[in-house]
Amino acid sequence: MEKGKAKSAAAAVTDSLPKLDSVASSESSSDRRFASWLQPSGQLSKRSKPPSLVSLCVGVVGKHLEDIIADLEEIAITFPPDIKMALAAVARRRRLLDNNVIVPLADGSWEILDISGSNVTDVGLIKLAGICRSLRAVDISRCENITVAGVSGVLQHCHSLETLRCGGCPRSDYMARCCLGILKPKLRDVDGDSWEELDATEIIDGAHSLRWLVWPRIDKYTLEDFSAECPRIAVNPKPSPFTLRGAQVPREAWPDIILDEPFVKDIDPETWAVSGFRPRKISAPLSSPTSELSVAEKFRLAFLERDNRLAPKRAKNVRQHQRRAEKEFMAMDTRAKALALASKLGKSLQNRH
Length: 353
Description:
Layout: H1 2-38, H2 53-63, H3 72-75, H4 81-93, H5 99-105, E1 112-114, H6 122-131, E2 137-139, H7 148-157, E3 163-165, H8 170-183, E4 186-187, E5 203-204, E6 212-214, H9 220-229, E7 234-235, E8 243-244, E9 247-248, H10 295-332, H11 334-352
Parallel strand pairs: 1-2, 2-3, 3-6, 6-7
Antiparallel strand pairs: 4-5, 8-9
């Protein structure tokens, strides 16, 4: 009796298997039809995301940016910070970025500033530093109108600056070489004979928070000297998932990264390739006197740079020789030694009173 029931149940299960197979085959065929409808070519269809309305509007404004530069200060007041950054990036790509454009667009919440290859001057850069005090990364590469004064203004106002990008053309390379002196640690008073005679308050830093310097064309000897005198600033760091000297290399310090690229990634490139517009080349041919310095000018700049670099050492040597001569004179002349001791005693008595 029980065997008969088991056989009938097994037969029922066996009869139901073809029905399940037919259902599964019908479902799989429908899935294949749906997949083929989504992907007619049998491959993954990559459909580009349509641009947002904001990106389209920024593109339209960017195409006609030169028509509103005169009134940009009044127009940009109502723009959000990211829109201002996008317009500045478009202006930079259209070779329209100068003091009259970047200063009205500047926003206090900006953390990066990319003015590479622009006509911004020291005056504009110092104004930007006074407005954008939270900057973490600044790119002034290929800026022929920026000197040490502009970089010094940025270091004075932007105490969170971690990355500085410079160089790229002869004048910018010379400016970067001259700026190394203000990036190194300095002393308020160098009259002491040794470091032990100095107080902690006498030691200051040129760039308090700077950690990364991107200067692709730095020469070998300059790199060795700067790394030895200022090891806390890494020059041309290589992108790596690991940390360098206890700090991970940020994206802004990668040499091949464009700082303002994320702000224009959704904007049509035709915005800065408008018809009838010929972008000005950043680096002119070697025969151009405006971008390439003559041999005589290079020698003159090299002599001035070497003279400025050695001037503190010469002054220090003169002070050391003077102190040694005074000590030898006091050791040999008892009267001079007595006068020196009397003057020290008089100063100590005045300090007590």
